[in-house]
Each structure stands twice: as C-alpha cells, then as structure tokens.
C-alpha cells in the first residue's frame, strides 16, 4: 500500500480576519522584491501568530514575496502584516536592488564569437 503525500495545511482563518479587515498597508506598500529582516529588538509577547511566523522567517534578508510564500497567504495580506511590523519597529526593510544599467554588449559579443570560433 502506498502512502499518500501529506496535504498542505490550509489555514481556516480568512485573510480579512488576519488583517483585521484592512486591505491595504499603511504608508507606501512594500514591493515584492523589497528585502526585510528582523530588527535588533525584543518581540512583544502579544503578537498574532502570523506576525510571529513572519519574524521567524525574517532572521536573514528575505523578500516580501518569499515571506508570502512561507506564510501561505496572499501577498496583499503579507504586505499589511509587514507594514504592522515595520510600524512597530520589529523589522527593517531595504529597497529592491535596481536593475543594472544597460551596458554596451559589443565586447561580450566579441568574446562570445571568439569562444565559438575556438570550438
């Protein structure tokens, strides 16, 4: 008899309950690529389980999208929860790294052609 893989656990708590009815974060919403990390402060004992779960995952730099994936919650819910933590001073954020400036690719093409001619 084969074992069935364990089904992912889905929270029975609705997202609007988790965010206390809020659908948008206060202030400027964090982009999916923004990096978050826990601050060097003690956590209050009276946090929601979702806030605590975020803080557990944010011990190193992690993106907002990755936090949402770990929580299994929609990104909009995660952004509201992260906004709470940011307002309370429990996390710090870094803006996403901007895309690199377009560089002249002619040198790269010459290198590629040179390597191809060696084959």
Automatic annotation (TrEMBL):
Pfam families per UniProt: DUF742
Domain of life according to the entry: Bacteria
Protein name: DUF742 domain-containing protein
